[in-house]
Amino acid sequence: MIPAVSARGVGKAYRQYPTRLDKLLRFVSFGRAGRAGLTWVLRGVSFEVAPAESVAIIGRNGAGKSTLLKMIAGTTHATEGTVNVRGRVAALLELGMGFHPDLTGRQNAVMAGNLMGWSKAELRSMMPAIEAFAGIGDYIEQPLRIYSSGMQVRLAFSVATALRPDVLIVDEALAVGDIQFQQKCFARIGEFRDAGTTIIFVTHDLASIYRLCTRALYLEHGELVLDDTPRRVIDLYQATVLGATAPPPDPGNGSYASPDVDIAGVRLVDERGAESSVFAGNERMAIEVDVNFNATLRDPHVGFQIRDRRGQAIFMTTTHGLGACVGPVAQGTRKSLRFLLRPAVAPGQYTVTVGIADGALTDGTFERSIVREQDALAFWVVDSVDAPRWAGIANLNASVLIGAGEDRSQVTATSE
Amino acid sequence: MSVPGVLRAMWRYRSFIAGNVERELRLRYTGSVLGVAWNVLEPLALVLIYVVVFSEVMHARLPGSGDRHDYGVYVLAGMLVWLAFSEIVGRCVNLFIDNANLLKKAAFPRVTLLASAIASSLVNVGLIAVLFATVLVAIGRFPGWVTLTLLAPLAVTVVLAAGLGIFLGTLNVLFRDVGHVTTIALQFWFWLTPIVYPRSVLPEAFRSAVAWNPLAPLVAAFQSVFVTARAPDWPSLAGVSAGALVVFALGYALFKGNAATLVDEL
Lengths: 416, 266
What we know:
The structure holds 2 protein chains of 2 kinds. By secondary structure, chain A is an alpha/beta fold. Chain A folds into 2 domains: 5-242, P-loop containing nucleotide triphosphate hydrolases (Rossmann fold), CATH 3.40.50.300; 251-382, abc- transporter (atp binding component) like domain (Coagulation Factor XIII, Chain A, domain 1). Chain A contains 8 helices and 19 strands. In chain A, helix 4 crosses helix 5. The longest helix of chain A is centred in the middle third of the chain and has 17 residues, at 179-195. The two termini of chain A are 41 Å apart. Chain B has one domain (3-265). Chain B is globular and about 60 Å long. At the A-B interface, helix 1 and helix 3 of A face helix 2, helix 6, helix 8 and helix 12 of B.
């Protein structure tokens, strides 16, 4: 099989010249004379993408993701190694496609179309569809400089995908579009993928990787660290990114500690008991908490809270709430708990907060809250391919019965 | 890229090149009431100033010529060469800088930008040439078929200008001073070329210096056809033709050799 995209030992370096003379010499001699220092932003990257495969590239800012995309798109040349792409490429790098601020949206669309090799006549027949998909109305006749960034991306995406390319390259651009437009774009990307387009995209929205990709590449400091299934790559990304950026617990962010109790560990595991940070909404997951009691407590309870990206608590419960008892415990006792749950919530990023309190009261509150570890862990909930489709914030597990005529008991069809 | 490769790229991207020319004509006057009409009004003013004002009002005369239109025709003939040359050089010097956004975000043969710049310049000069020819016909001075011989010096002018332009344009990406120096150098070059004055008014010492000015024989060819309706002095064009090819080869080699890293410097 011939890969749609292949990179072999690809590296990109930017040159720095000690003096202006070196810079001049370097250029007039085509790189043979003059001293130049190299700053590598990407090095030794090799991978192949099969036709019709969809691959996400993830990594922190400055990891080299965009540089890699630019080389695949052909706007930047590799300093070493080779990049090969087969077929017609459509690339959406950053905002726009090299749009000119003084030209109208339509004129820019025509220019971008020309650059993709479409003739005037072809473009004329494609324009209505391009305009309709962009959905920017009369702005199409206005100069681009008055467009919002979202409008620019709408136009750019609409032009870039007016015809199904063999290879579609999308940089984080889509993030500036509104939700409705993003969904429209993802629907179109999905159609292309099903029709055989190879898709390579960079995003920080891990849920969309799950929905679209069969594979992910993780870049760190310009190196390809992991090339694996989205789940394993996202796990690594989560571990490194969140591990590096999570603030130490302090009273300011809602955490507090106590000499009496010590939360020794918090882990998220999947159905098979393997540690993970990505869970499908229809799978079971577990929150494991290890607690060391350094004091004797009469009626200790362990609880957790799941919060969404905006910090809103979407679910919380405690051992007391679940009708269980941890104690009484003597000093030096260690307990390990496993909370089982099904994260039937909208795809996205969530955090887990763990707390321990003593002395349950009948109304579900406690006499004394002892420790709390705010946002101890983060995890992603993703769409599962085989689960029923739904939208909103929580999956209420709907099903449907369809009856004949007025009679709902005469079932002719059901979702179950 | 080989020569057939370049031609293939030009053909494949012909609508992009044509679109660039059209967009530029529109863009230059966006927001103006007369719009595209300015493309004609500006050169019209130029033609009228030289032919009518100089000839009719100021009675400027070429030495040794009695015809009242000779001087205006002489200046405009030279101006056609100069405008083609300076427009192409001027555009090419800023070609990569002006199109930085496009170069960074779209992959296409860079040589099509050069073609667009040349085509745009030729369209502008062509407009002036058409107006000039119309005026010549009106005053009964159109030289006739011999005008077609000017395609040769025009081609040499384009090759020379494109070669020089792309050489300077590549350097300009690295050292932005090049663009400013070019603007100044072009002004000197204009006055060092016998365009508004006849070569005969120059002191002897300068006259031999003009022999080294590659534009002088090209300008002379146009002046010869339009003023005296005589075909160009072909042998005088041999040197500049060869020189133009060398300059173009050098300019294109510098551009080609650095094309890969050029976009990183933008």
